[in-house]
Amino acid sequence: MQPRRSSALRTSAGTTLGTSDDRPWFLKNSRWEDSTWILAPTNALEERLPVRLHWDFSVEDGCSFTDARHAPLLQTSKRLIALIRGRSLYTGLPLRPSSVLNFFHTLRLLVRWMDLEGLRRFADLDRPALLQFQHRLSVSPTSRHSTRAASTVQRHLALFNYLYRCRAELGDGLSFDPFPGSNHHEAAGAREGLRRPWPYTPDTVSVVLLQAAVKIVTHDAAHVLQARETYRRVMASAAAPPHSSAPVGRATRALRRAREGTSGVERPVTSVSELVRRIDMLYAACFVVLSYMVGPRVSEILHLHAGCVRRLVGDAAGAPVSVIVGSIFKRQPGYDGCPHEWVAPPVAVQAISVLEALSEPHRALTARPELWLRLRRGNGAWEWHEVQPELLEIASAPRVSHLLRRFGAALGLSHLDKPWRLTTHQGRKTFARFAALRDRSCLFALAQHLGHRERAQTDHGYVGSDYRLNQEIDAEILNQSVAAWEHMLAAPGLGGRAGAEIVAKRPRFRGSRMKQDLRSYARLLVDAGLVLGVCDWGYCVYREEHSACLGNATGPNPARREPSTCARCQNFVVSAQHRPYWLEQVRRSERLLNEPALPLQTLRIVRARMNEARGLLRALGSDTAEETDHA
What we know:
Blueprint: E1 36-38, E2 52-54, H1 71-86, H2 97-117, H3 127-138, H4 150-165, H5 167-170, H6 184-187, H7 203-237, H8 245-260, H9 272-293, H10 298-302, E3 309-313, E4 320-328, E5 338-343, H11 346-366, E6 373-375, E7 392-394, H12 397-411, E8 414-415, E9 418-419, H13 426-436, H14 442-450, H15 455-460, H16 467-490, H17 497-505, H18 514-527, E10 532-535, E11 538-541, H19 563-567, E12 572-573, H20 579-593, H21 600-619, H22 622-630
Antiparallel strand pairs: 1-2, 3-4, 4-5, 6-7, 8-9, 10-11, 11-12
Helix pairs in contact: 1-2, 2-4, 7-8, 7-9, 7-11, 9-11, 9-12, 9-13, 13-16, 16-18, 20-21, 21-22
């Protein structure tokens, strides 16, 4: 088992960074004067491939940066990287090696440009030089006619904050504030609304994805694990040279015999090659369940250990709650991260059990507790036969991303007639989006889709102390509210009692800046504190005195909100994008009215619901009315 590095994460205070015989606390198997620095891993995922910084890169004159004539600037650059590794300007905590590597790439660009301009010290930089370098940063290295994204430029410009604020510690640096009255984000041209956030998985894709993942975890997993044990038993008894085809053929025949003796299995494993593929898909399904239903980051999922599920008393009534115990690593200085608990629904607990069964042989062989131990490369079926302990490691994030792409391709996931590419961050983003709906109406559908007995189980899934996840949820609420107001301010017609009021009072937007003015006005309404509920069947422009759901001062009452209540509420707005929902309500009601066995009271309720839906659809326009009459 790899030794823990928590003791290595001391602050850099008191460390003699310039002493040639000293190895700073953040280096591993390298010294200060070496041309290559190997940064000490800060978690288990970094153990196999630690970050390396190569100081012997070439500069513009063809020489190496480690040549004697660059010695003063080299020493200053090393001190700068050491300061960056030891302390973030924003949190005061040590930065992860991957973040330090980004700063090193910027430093390398700056040093090469300074050598071209004849500058020997960072203090030689002035404002015109900084603007000139910023212009060079903005030009794409692949084409002089294209520009880098503002997010890329701002990441490079962040280095100058260190050069200015740490100039006394460095003995060299900027003598002026590089961004007076501003910051590196604005200097790079990043503006509100221009940033493209990482995407979530669209509803049409996530439903199919989760249905498949849950089915694999709850129904297929037992058969795949049984086939894996059949394969291991046959291979262990085979007296043949390693990687011989004879034992593999024998294992295939054993799998087929096992299929004949098993009834009720929808998709039996009939060959070794299929076993390999099904095991990979089982790993992918477990990741999807944990990511989309619990919400951890990929690093937090990959660091989970066997036995991480615990049962706790969840409320005053003593109802037990299952939690997954792990660690959060983002902006945490320790090797083991910050301990954390995620409340988990039953299917997520089942996914952990499947991972424990999958990893059990590898954990027994290595005496390590990680759930994602896999063969380093060339898995095949040989991952489970004659494996050397040193070849096992925790699966990396790129490897999981590759598994997800294969999983999505196997399911045929598509959106807007294009294949949808799954990535490791989409589960957390989609989870935050579900939780961000203020009325939480989606939780009813999600609970039903995932097989929960009650919505409270799903509701518990995003109640916790994950501050960063709460931030993402708040950001998603803000984005949804602004987008909803933009839509209502621009829609040609609105239904519902509040819809007519908005159409009558909203300002008119015209001209070339109409989109910008719409978004600015929408943001103004949100910043003013006007609570807006977003759901599948409409919007709620919430005012407590008009609330049909009997909400309080903080917002609508999620327990009493439902389509019929909203339809008769003075806060309710419906637009053209909600037309499919209400049209389906009409059609469903008409089908129920044709059921002869329904009692009279039920028929009255159904007829009332149908009339409500038709009324809202007529308010949206004549085309919709014709559509409902035809239905």
